[in-house]
Specification:
heterodimer, A: about 190 residues, mainly beta, 4 helices, about 10% helix, B: about 240 residues, Protocatechuate 3,4-Dioxygenase, subunit A, 2 domains, four-stranded antiparallel sheet, 12 strands
Chain lengths: ~190, ~240
């Protein structure tokens, strides 16, 4: 008999020493010419901040290539120094932040390029399994408008929860777990 | 693109994972999303994933009893098992991170207010990479049960938290390993949030005499199966 997948359980409140002892919130150094800061606050359904969440990101490099053997598109440059992975806890104000570069566009299921985005996992006490969302970019209006995933969401306000906004030199991507402002989350 | 209805979004269609909203686990009530999940087609973004952890592992990271000058109190145990994908293939060179309470049921975390003693010789965090057969192995002490404020007289059964990446973004998993015969399991809403009884049992380790080392430590086996079948190469997406 082949057992099914092991079920998910909450990360709980006490993960910090094990998972955040090494700072992985900077995917590039601060003097990288194309470095961008992405930050946000996690809120619960009552609008209260969530100070005990962990946010992970996974993204392609500037050329739109993932640092992973399954992405074998050798015509695109691969930057060995850029892992594409980041991890940030939320602080006492519910804030997470990453220093990274904007990813290039990656192909969708039909092979056509999609609007660029960053994959996001959210873990927290009270989440029996992770939540998955995506960060899209505000300076990609044209690409966002025709993106198959974004345009599959009819509710404009709900769709906009996936697009970061400019905020004094950084990008802001707040995550609302529940409520009127709830962020759009994905399933597989 | 399919959107699940509210109830399905809450996870009731997935037999394996707990739903986001499980009211007996009180913290889910304000943190569970209520709007439908948007179902993503399989793309490179989720069939790839971070190779995090290589080059990260310190020499004592897989032995939680050797990270301080003295030995921690408690029952020394060896926890080992294999990490497999959905087709039963070993997941190799993949990061496994664990954390747990000490033998008294206390975490070395400023947020833990349980008035049980801290152990200066136990931090409760470890990591390792799986080997060529997908195997991992930790030496630690058996964690204690501890109270939490979910409901009146609520106690968490002894458990070790596991974090795994596997080969792809899709296979990312955080779960908890429990111990056989623990009477608290039937009272624990986190364990019971996995609705199917048989599936729940996948999270209970088994005592293993072969892993047990004479005059040294009890052995427990805990195999982990990552969501892998869905991560098979693209073939049937629309």
């Amino acid at each position: 008999m082949s057992p099914g997948p092991t079920p998910s359980q909450t990360i709980g409140p006490f993960f910090h020493d094990a998972l955040l002892d090494i700072d992985r919130s900077d995917l590039v150094s601060s003097d990288h010419p194309e470095a961008i800061k992405i930050q946000g606050t996690v809120y619960d359904g009552a609008g209260e901040i969530v100070p005990d969440a962990m946010v992970e990101i996974w993204q392609a490099n500037r050329a739109g290539r993932y640092n992973h053997p399954a992405d074998d598109r050798e015509d695109l440059s691969l930057d060995e120094d850029f892992s594409g992975f980041g991890r940030s806890g939320t602080d006492a104000r519910g804030e997470f932040s990453f220093l990274t570069v904007k990813p290039g566009p990656v192909p969708g299921p039909d092979g056509r390029l999609q609007a660029p985005y960053v994959m996001v996992s959210v873990f927290a006490r009270g989440l029996p399994k992770r939540l998955v969302t995506r960060i899209y970019f505000p300076d990609e209006e044209e690409a966002n408008a025709v993106d198959p995933v974004l345009s599959s969401i009819d509710d404009q306000a709900f769709r906009r929860t996936l697009i970061a906004r400019d905020e004094s030199g950084a990008l802001r991507f707040d995550i609302h777990l529940q409520g009127d402002k709830q962020t759009a989350f994905f399933g597989f | 693109m399919a959107q699940r209805t509210g109830e399905e979004a809450a996870g009731y269609r997935r037999e394996d994972d707990p739903p986001y909203l499980y009211p007996d686990y009180v913290a889910t009530r304000l943190r569970a999303p209520k709007k439908p999940l948007i179902i993503l087609p399989r793309t490179l973004s989720d069939t790839t994933g971070p190779a995090y952890g290589r080059g990260l592992i310190g020499e004592l990271d897989d032995d939680l009893t050797s990270q301080h000058s003295g030995e921690p109190l408690g029952e020394r145990i060896i926890v080992t098992g294999r990490v497999l994908d959905g087709d039963g293939r070993p997941v190799r060179s993949s990061l496994v991170e664990i954390w747990q309470a000490n033998a008294s049921g206390r975490y070395t975390h400023e947020g833990d207010r349980h008035p049980a003693p801290l152990d200066p010789n136990f931090s409760g965090a470890g990591r390792c990479l799986t080997d060529g057969e997908g195997r991992y192995r930790f030496v630690t002490v058996k964690p204690g049960a501890y109270p939490w404020k979910n409901h009146d007289n609520a106690w968490r059964p002894a458990h070790i938290h596991f974090s795994l990446f596997g080969p792809a973004f899709r296979s990312r998993l955080i779960t908890q390993m429990y111990f056989p015969g623990d009477p608290l399991l039937e009272h624990d809403p986190i364990f019971r949030s996995v609705r199917d009884r048989e599936t729940r049992r996948c999270m209970i380790s088994t005592f293993d005499l072969e892993t047990t080392q004479p005059e040294w430590a009890l052995g427990y086996r805990f195999d982990i199966v990552l969501g892998g079948r869905d991560a098979a190469p693209m073939e049937n997406h629309r």
